[in-house]
Sequence to fold (406 residues):
Amino acid sequence: MYRLTSAREGTRKGSLMPSQYQQRSRAREGTRSRKAPRTWGKLRKLPSGRYQASYVGPDNARHVAPYTFDTVAAADAWLAARRTEISGGSWVRPAVAERPAPELVTFGQYADDWLTGRTLKPRTRAEYRTMLDRLILPRFERVPLVDIDPTVVRSWHSKMGDQAPTQRAHAYSLLRTILSTAVDDELIPANPCRIRGAGGTKRARKIEPATLDQLATIAESVPTRYKLLVLLAGWCALRFGELAELRRQDVEVERGILRVRRAVARTADGAVIVGTPKSDAGVRDVTIPPHLMPAVVAHLGQHVRREQDALLFPAAGDPNAHMAPATLYRVFYPAREAAGRPDLRFHDLRHTGAVLAAATGATLADLMARLGHSTPGAAMRYQHASADRDRVIAEALSKLAEASAP
Fold:
């Protein structure tokens, strides 16, 4: 006779019911599949949670998929397609669409691509190129991106020293920006630039804007053809690059307006570049204070050619060439000495213009529009306490004291 065993007995004796056996069998298969080594291709889970696939081609170079995948299965399917192409003889070496593996990308290669792909003004591009070549690439050019860690960055930053704090801060900011883009491109998991405050600079010198008397003395001390240049810098707060590119057609005498549409800049190698002003907000109309209009009309009649595109302040020997900063300095430096302000830079006259505009009760938005700033922070850098205004406040405080006296 046959004896039926119970499920409990079967389990105890090592036998399994069919359903139990299938479940354990599937579990063992899943364990084996997870632990089995990958025989071809490579997968990497990125910080974003997506997967990056790469493989070594017949050319013995590693090629990375031009995009990442949501799942392992999708990445495996892409790898399988590449393997089929190789085994079938139809594989073609990928072009730029497939980038090299992250561990093979050096900072120098990535920085060059980063600079090429950015939309920058010519002068900014030239400045970035100079910073890279002089300060950053000597240390990082051949270093793979994945090998740049906070310790390496901190060592590089400290070795630059503090003799040129502004230059060091700008170089650090550029390095941080490039590596931040590398994080976005999922080439590195995190930005190694983590030195607090290293990208900021403190103003090296306290700027004291010129007073009205000093501004008038400087304007009278320079040769006649430079007088309006000084007055517009002080009263209209224009940048030198904006002034040097002003042309006859940019002056509306009837309305008393300067149309600021362009600016000229010089690169480190001396190239002259005409483009838009420093920011989008720099394209603006600036109203000329009425008391300056006689000087504007006189300058147009005596020192500017009749053509509409004639420069208001051309180079001394060539009416078609832009004035060089060195040419201005030759006449400005003696004039500032005459005003008793040997410390004054020409750009400081822009601060004078901001103070004068603020003294009229202009709001921050008004100042941003007049100075051509797109952010309040930029405009606030030109806010200064006027000594004359402080004297008015002090006198008002004394009047309050006198009124309250018994």
Q: What stands out?
A: The chain is about 50% helix and 10% strand. The chain has a mean pLDDT of 81.
